[in-house]
């Protein structure tokens, strides 16, 4: 009897460890076209109107357009907004997101964002294209990994994952219709910097996103929906990208 009680006690302690915490998950289907999406906030107030729109490639689908400004006006260092989601105290976490680059320009996502002068940026560069890691601080940019090639063409959807753990940041990328789980892939790029320890996830420049999930562990990376939509995951069906 004592052995059985010990086993149940161990299971009680270990089960919570299998899951972390899901900070945010949405496919934007419950949001209103033309409105700012639920759960997000403006981390840096600039120009532009972030809003939910129709997917440019599928009019029956809703996505989040980070700005309505042109490519050369949308970045925060020239006066654009930064929209963020999650909690200020987030330390180690991962984010899955589908991303659409409307034009060939400098744009991407931010993480460990605390304010307009304290965050990291995973940036798509104009041209080839390639991807860089940057740190924003004291009104200046510091590049700590550059020139990683990935064919993220404009006006197409791609699926990305960013894994933030300690001072190491792994970025994964694939075509949206690629069913290979990120957990079975090698990172596209790995950056290291120890300046910022906590902060939210957000968007940078002229980008559209969909199916955004922010969580602590692999088992947190799902979207639960009650009604029919583009994703049909439940607590019993983990979304694996």
Task: Kindly describe this structure.
By secondary structure, this protein is mostly beta strands. The protein has one domain (18-220): Sandwich (Jelly Rolls). The protein is 7% helix and 42% strand. The protein contains one helix and 15 strands. The protein has one helix at 2-18; strands spanning 22-26, 41-44, 51-55, 58-65, 82-85, 93-100, 107-115, 118-124, 130-137, 140-149, 157-165, 168-175, 189-192, 200-204, 208-215. Strands 1, 3, 4, 6, 11, 12, 13 and 15 form an eight-stranded antiparallel sheet that branches. A seven-stranded antiparallel sheet has the order 2-5-14-7-8-9-10, with no helix packed on it. β7 (107-115) and β8 (118-124) form a beta hairpin. The longest helix is centred in the first third of the chain and has 17 residues, at 2-18. The model is unreliable at 1-17 and 231-241 (pLDDT under 50).
């Amino acid at each position: 009897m004592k052995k059985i009680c010990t086993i149940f006690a161990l299971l009680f302690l270990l089960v919570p460890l299998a899951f972390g915490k899901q900070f945010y998950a949405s496919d934007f289907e419950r949001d209103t076209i033309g409105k700012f999406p639920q759960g997000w906030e403006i981390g840096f107030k600039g120009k532009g109107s972030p809003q939910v729109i129709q997917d440019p490639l599928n009019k029956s689908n809703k996505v989040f357009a980070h700005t309505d400004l042109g490519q050369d006006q949308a970045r925060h260092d020239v006066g654009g907004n930064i929209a963020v989601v999650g909690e200020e105290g987030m330390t180690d976490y991962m984010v899955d997101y589908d991303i659409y680059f409307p034009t060939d320009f400098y744009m991407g996502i931010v993480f460990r964002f605390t304010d307009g002068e304290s965050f990291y940026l995973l940036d798509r560069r104009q041209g080839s294209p390639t991807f860089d890691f940057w740190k924003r601080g004291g009104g200046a940019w510091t590049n700590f990994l550059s020139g990683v090639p990935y064919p993220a063409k404009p006006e197409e959807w791609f699926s990305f994952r960013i894994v933030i753990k300690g001072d190491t940041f792994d970025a994964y990328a694939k075509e949206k219709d690629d069913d290979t789980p990120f957990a079975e892939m090698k990172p596209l790029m790995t950056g290291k910097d120890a300046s910022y320890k906590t902060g939210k996830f957000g968007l940078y420049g002229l980008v559209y996103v969909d199916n955004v999930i922010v969580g602590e562990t692999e088992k947190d990376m799902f979207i639960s929906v009650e009604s029919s939509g583009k994703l049909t995951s439940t607590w019993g069906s983990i979304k694996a990208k």
